[in-house]
Every structure is written in C-alpha cells, then in structure tokens.
C-alpha cells in the first residue's frame, strides 16, 4: 500500500529505507540520506537543495516536476527510474550508476558527471548545459530532440547509442568513442573542440561536420554518405573502409590521412589538401579532385576515374597501369 507524505513530513530524515511511498510537494534543505535505499516510490513537486544522497540506491522511482540543486549523487545507483520535468542544478554524479531509465523534458545544468556509468537510457526533449563528463559511459542509449550546450566530454564511451535531432553548441569533444553510434543528420558545426574522437562503424549520413578543426579522428568503416565535410582541418585521420559517397569534402585539409579502401565515389574534393595521404585500393568513380593538393599521395590499385584538373600531383605513387589514367585525369579534366 502506498503512503502519502506532504511538506510537513520529512520522510528522508526519519527512515533508513523508503518503499512504496508517494512523496509530494516537499521543500527540503540539507538532507543527509547517505547509503540508504528508496524503491517503488514516486517523488513529485519537490524542491531539494544542498543535500547528500551519496551511495544511495534509487530503484523504480518516478520523479516528476522536481528540482534538485547543489545535491551530491556521487556513487548513487539509479535503476528503472523515470524523470519527467526534473531539473538538476549544480549537482554531482561522480561515479554514479544510471541504468534502464528515462528523462523527459528534463535538464542537467552546471553538474559533474565524471566517471558516470550510464546504460540503456532514453533522453527526450531534454538538455545538458555546462556539464563536465569525463572517463564515463553512456552506452546503448537513445537521445532524441536533445541540446548539448557548453559541455565538455572527455574519454566518454557512447557506443551503440543513437542521437536524433540533437544540437551541439560550443561543446568540447576529446578522445570520445562513438562506436556503432547513429548520428545521422546531426549538426556538429558549432563544436568548440574536436580531437582524437573515434567514430568506428558509426552512421553519420547527412551529418554536418563543416569547418571542424581537430586531428587524429577515426572514421574507420563509418558511413559518411552525403555528409558535409567541407572546410575541415584534420590531419592524421583514419577513413579506411569508410563510405564517403556523394559527400562534400571541399576546401578541407586532410593531410597525412588514411583513405585505404574507402569509397569516395561522386564526392566533391575540390580545393582540398590530401598531402601524403594513403588512397590505396580506394574507389574514386566521378570523384572531383580539381585544384586539390594530392602531392605524395599513394593511389595503388585505385578504382574509378576521377577529375584531377589543375590538381597538384607531384610525387604521386601509383602502379604502372594507373599512370596513364593519372595523366588522363590531368589532361581531360
């Protein structure tokens, strides 16, 4: 049987564990609810500030219309929880666990998510602002209609997650892992920092990565079909086995890149720099390299006929059978 508690009743200070409770309209400050258990309950219309919930277990909790400000959720476990219109302001989730839970119309602001381990989470119509998230996980999750604002993500594993209709505003992404993520049509052009991120086997179809600056990116086996990669400055990048079909790579600098076995068919690479890049075994059918720098590139066993009109081609390395074709590229345009 569910019991009800109103604003005159501080259930948190009176119990070691809470179960089957309806907690409504509490305004509380300086709660000490450390290493306790709360399960199969609802918390609605509450405002809780400057409180300590470290190492507490929240299981099957429904949070609705709540505000948590300056609360410590370090090493807390959230399992099968629902957050509807819940705001977390200046909170700590350091080394917390978040599993099989959902957020709807909720906000996380000015908070520390370092070493958070999150799995199977749904975020809908929600946002993160001024977040620090390092050395953690957000795996197998669904992020839909979401805003990332002024966040710092460093060494976070996002593998097997999907991002739909997300905006990335002034976000720093360093050494993150987006393995097998779905990032179709995401707009990254307002990213503030973009270094050493891995997108192995990720789907970035129709994404906007224009004007990104950052080295050592890994797009191995990624789908970059119809993706905007124009204006990028990114050295030592891995594009091997990637699908880069009908994409825009104009006015970019991909020096020292690896495009081995990639498919660049029907893409525009005009006015770009590929100096010292590995293009071996790639497919360049109707690829436009006009006015690009292809100096010191390797084109062994490349398939297809591309446009290299006015391209810089000194010291290109290719097999004898492709030498004639390379000359035709320049002559025919």
Automatic annotation (TrEMBL):
SUPFAM superfamilies, sorted: Pentapeptide repeat-like (SSF141571)
One Pfam short name: Pentapeptide_4
Domain of life: Bacteria
PANTHER family: ANTIBIOTIC RESISTANCE PROTEIN MCBG (PTHR42999), PENTAPEPTIDE REPEAT-CONTAINING PROTEIN (PTHR42999:SF1)
Protein name: Pentapeptide repeat-containing protein
Species the sequence originates in: Francisella uliginis
Species lineage: Bacteria, Pseudomonadati, Pseudomonadota, Gammaproteobacteria, Thiotrichales
């Amino acid at each position: 049987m569910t019991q009800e508690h109103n604003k005159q009743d501080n259930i948190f200070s009176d119990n070691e564990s809470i179960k089957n409770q309806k907690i409504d309209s509490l305004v509380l400050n300086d709660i000490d609810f450390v290493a306790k258990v709360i399960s199969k309950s609802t918390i609605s219309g509450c405002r809780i500030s400057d409180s300590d919930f470290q190492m507490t277990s929240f299981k099957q909790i429904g949070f609705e219309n709540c505000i948590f400000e300056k609360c410590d959720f370090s090493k807390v476990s959230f399992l099968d929880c629902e957050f509807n219109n819940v705001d977390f302001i200046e909170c700590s989730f350091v080394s917390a666990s978040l599993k099989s839970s959902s957020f709807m119309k909720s906000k996380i602001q000015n908070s520390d998510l370092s070493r958070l381990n999150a799995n199977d989470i749904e975020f809908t119509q929600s946002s993160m602002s001024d977040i620090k998230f390092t050395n953690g996980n957000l795996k197998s999750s669904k992020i839909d209609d979401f805003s990332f604002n002024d966040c710092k993500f460093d060494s976070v594993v996002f593998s097997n997650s999907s991002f739909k209709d997300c905006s990335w505003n002034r976000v720093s992404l360093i050494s993150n892992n987006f393995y097998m993520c779905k990032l179709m049509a995401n707009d990254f052009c307002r990213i503030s920092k973009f270094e050493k991120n891995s997108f192995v086997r990720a789907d970035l179809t129709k994404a906007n990565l224009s004007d990104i600056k950052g080295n050592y990116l890994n797009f191995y086996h990624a789908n970059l079909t119809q993706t905007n990669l124009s204006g990028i400055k990114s050295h030592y990048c891995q594009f091997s086995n990637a699908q880069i079909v009908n994409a825009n790579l104009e006015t970019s600098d991909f020096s020292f890149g690896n495009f081995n076995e990639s498919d660049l068919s029907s893409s525009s690479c005009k006015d770009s720099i590929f100096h010292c890049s590995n293009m071996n075994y790639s497919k360049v059918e109707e690829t436009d390299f006009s006015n690009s720098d292809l100096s010191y590139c390797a084109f062994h066993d490349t398939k297809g006929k591309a446009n290299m009109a006015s391209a810089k081609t000194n010291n290109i390395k290719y097999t004898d059978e492709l030498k004639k074709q390379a000359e035709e590229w320049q002559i025919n345009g």
